Structure formats: C-alpha cells, structure tokens
Amino acid sequence: MPTVRTPSRQALIDHLLRTRIAGAVATSRENNLEHYRELASGNRYYWLGLDLGDRWSDEDALLKLMAERCGVVADPEHRSGQDIIDPELTVEALDRMAVALRKAAAGKQRVLFATGHPGGLLGVHQATAAALRDAGCEITEIPEGLYADDGRVLQIGGVAMVLRTAALVHTHSPEPMAAILDAMEREGRPLPQLVVADHGWAGCAGQRGIDAIGYADCNDPALFVGEAEGSLMVTVPLDDHVAPHYYEPMTAYLLSAAGLAE
User: Fold this and answer.
1) Which contiguous run of DSSP H or E holds residue 105?
2) C-beta separation of 173 from 201 below 8 A
3) Between the CA of residue 18 and those of 23, 24, 182, 216, what are the distances in Å?
4) So where are the chain's domains?
5) What does the alpha-carbon distance between residue 58 and residue 92 come to, in Å, rounded to a whole number?
6) 130/141 Cα distance (integer angstroms)
7) How many CB atoms lie within 10 A of CB 262?
8) Which Pfam families has this protein been placed in (predicted)?
9) How far, in Å, CA of 180 to CA of 188, rounded?
10) pLDDT tens sequence across 172-213
11) Which residue in 105, 37, 96, 101 sits closest to 66, CA to CA?
12) What is the pLDDT of residues 19-68, one digit of tens each?
C-alpha cells in the first residue's frame, strides 16, 4: 500500500462517509432485511461458518443487535430504501481491532489472513499482514494443493483466498478456511493463534475456537452475532466492496492505532 498520511479520528469518519464505506452505504434496506430473515430462518449460507442453532430465530432481536453493533436503522417499519452503517461504530471497532493486533505483535503470534472479498479488502489484509510480519509475527503459510468452494485455495501477499479458473472469488463460504485448518491439523502444524479475515473465513475460525477478527457489511449479520456471543473478538462494520484505494486511510488509521505504522 502506498504511504498514506494517518487521518485523525474525525478525518477518518469524514472519509468513511464521503466514500460510503460507512454512512449511506450501497447495500439497500431490502437486501439487509432479506439476509436477516434468512439467518433467522436457519439458512446456514448466511451463518458464515458459525453454528447459531435456534438462538437468533427472532428477526426483531437480530435487527436490534444490528442497529446496536452496525448502526442500521432500528425502526422495524423501515422496510425499503436507504440503510446506514454508523461510522462511529466502524472506528470504535477498528480501535478494538488495534488492541488485538498490538497484542499479536507483542506476543509475536502466528496470524492467518484470509478474504472472501478480494475485490475490496485484499489490500487491507495485505498491508496488515506486512505490518505484523515486520513486527515479528509469523504470517501463517497455508498448505499447498488445497481445493474448496469449487476453486483453488492460495495465498497472495500473505492472504488466503479462492481462485476459480482465472478469477479471484467473492465467497461467503466457510469451506476454504475449514480446508486450511483441517490440512494443518493433518500435517501436525500449529494452528494460527489469530485469524484476521471476513465472511465465512472469519466465522469458521471463530467457530473452531481460534481468536478471530472479521470485517462485515450490514447485510452479513452472522459475524456481528458471533461477536455478541463471543465467537469473534471483533467485527468491524463497513461496506466491504468499494474501490480498494478508499480503504487506505482506514488501514493507515488501524496500523497507527496498533502501533504498527512505519
């Protein structure tokens, strides 16, 4: 990532609103509510690798949680049109994530990075992985020859993702992370002490009992549920598919808060 001046908290909030990483995001209210209904009805695709049982079958309780942790409109009668992510909640979650990254750096932990949203978040993960590597952490190298979610599981710049034919894949599936962890166990390799990821990659790691941090959009409620239940350490609310360079000030803020900036 090119050198970007670290923004102040308020400057970052302004940037999140201007680029629609938070604030009036592109994800519609209809899409959010549809995904909440699917999670509540037990559709495991929307559980992102977590085992939620029947604990979140109440859609109103799920909406309340998403309003508290993501900032979507709390009014259940708001059924269509614009929905929002509260940028204050985004920055607060980044601050919590920074604490976990600082701890990882201090303990020179084994850290695995992965993304199901390479079109948006790959640069964020790569920059964070590079900063932790420079701080003495071991960035986990995944076993070779893994296949899951109809594609090859590989790493680019220390970040695991899925390649299908010639394209990096947007996937919510937990199967690629499960394939990595299963292969590491078969080979007798130590598992990561921390996973920094999104979508099913983060949910699967958290369900396996590994400390996990996830980025999540307002239409991906499972990771917010996971944080509420303690399966995930932190879930950062944001639009996970804006232009990649828009995330650079956010990444600079995160690494500075974690004491990892150059």
Assistant:
1) helix 87-106
2) no
3) 8, 9, 42, 19
4) 8-262
5) 27
6) 13
7) 7
8) Phosphatase (PF15698)
9) 12
10) 999 999 999 999 999 999 999 999 999 999 999 999 999 999
11) 37
12) 999 999 999 999 999 999 999 999 999 999 999 999 999 999 999 999 99
pLDDT of the residue at 126:
98
CA distances for 47 relative to 54, 63, 72, 237, 262, angstroms: 12, 15, 19, 16, 37
Residue 231 token pair: 């399966």
Residue 217 · residue 83 · CB < 8 Å: no
Distance CA 245, CA 45 (A): 29
Q: How confident is the model at residue 1 (pLDDT cuts 50, 70, 90)?
A: very low
Residue 173, SS3? Answer: coil
Pairing mode, if any, of strands 151-156 and 159-164? antiparallel
What single-letter amino acid sits at 238?
L
Q: Is residue 234 within 8 Å of residue 226, measured between CB atoms?
A: no
Q: Tell me how long the chain is.
A: 262
Number of C-alpha atoms within 13 angstroms, CB side, residue 51?
Answer: 4
- CA–CA gap between residue 180 and residue 147 (Å, rounded): 9
Rounded to whole angstroms, how far apart are CA atoms 12 and 124? 15
Report the DSSP beta bridge partners of residue 165: none
